[in-house]
């Protein structure tokens, strides 16, 4: 089956007719439909599928063992809220297309080749990105993850079995000798140099932080402005401070989610909770950025008669991909090597000691996590050929 046909089959799953954006929340109907599509494509190619205790799927062409480790590729099928079509699924569809291309070349791998579909990469339902790969690698313990809850209060242990229920479903990582993830570029570096494919050098360190602003709920009409203890003012200033600090330091800071309690139009809120996404070029720069934002938030809270508390919900350190592997892929082909500010399952596997590389496919506008996310078909096909070449190189 061609790349174009697979893409057309998967594209409607979880897409909003109104906005064109995607809502493939992990372990819900739309994402499960996407996983069923994955299973059907595996069956079409007679691949052997292993499903671990956390819902991750790994399909093998060949039979890997700890003594004959395979080359793994793939990505994820879940989305952010109102996300784009390419973030994650491009890597999965391209993996199947690359296997098809290798078979059409008559290639017989000396090392098994696997295709992965990781679960909850985006952290859009449970509050931790790359949750499936963190659990599979043991970077995150099940006892620490099982009580993670979504916005409706559903615990992770309520939707995935966990190792206690599936003690037979562990160990696939022991069969992986290298991992290559293809992904749409979430920026426009490749567009700037006019190249369809690039190789990742590193992932910036990044974190998600919850800031709880508390004040005194009161009447919007009868309470004089000078008598208010309004946490919304403290929150608003903190958003502006985060923007300023990130711009001054050349880093990234974003408030993309906020909750207000009690949420009355005619009432001063008693609590405002905002979530900060912060990313920086080094761990030191990330710490300095978050500290500066927290300090300004605290100063403003003192003036407003409110209080603020910052909680780190997840922090990921810098990831440097296997430099020798990156050179092996990039130099003979003239592909540019570039860092990325976005987190990926590849970063988790790299942190677990797996030799890891990433391929990026050009995104002409650089827009991502949006319905406008896009990669031209000709660039996607160039990515498929690039991935097939890399897998052939590594699986000889």
From TrEMBL:
It is an enzyme of class 3 (hydrolase). One of its GO terms (molecular function) is N-carbamoyl-L-amino-acid hydrolase activity. Keywords: Hydrolase. Its EC number is 3.5.1.87. It comes from the Bacteria. Belongs to the peptidase M20 family. This is N-carbamoyl-L-amino-acid hydrolase. It comes from Nocardioides marmoribigeumensis.
